[in-house]
Design a protein that fits this description.
By secondary structure, the chain is an alpha+beta fold. It has three helices and two strands, in the order H-H-E-E-H. About 0% of the residues are buried.
Amino acid sequence: MNPQYEILTKCLLPTHMLEWFELTNVELKHKEKTATQDTESDESPVNIIHLYLDENELTPGNPSGIQPRMGDVTQGRV
């Protein structure tokens, strides 16, 4: 993986996010101008960056204190 993409990912994501997720892929796609966009400006082309993450086996904080709330379990939210 390109180190520049990892630096960009660290800037965009919350602190310590890459401790729990691994950057697996990056895709750059050119964004086409649409009729609703300003057609008079000749600015640099716009690219869309897709960051793909894979979850690590690590859990944040103290995993022994993690328990679902009873309401979440009974309502099927866990």
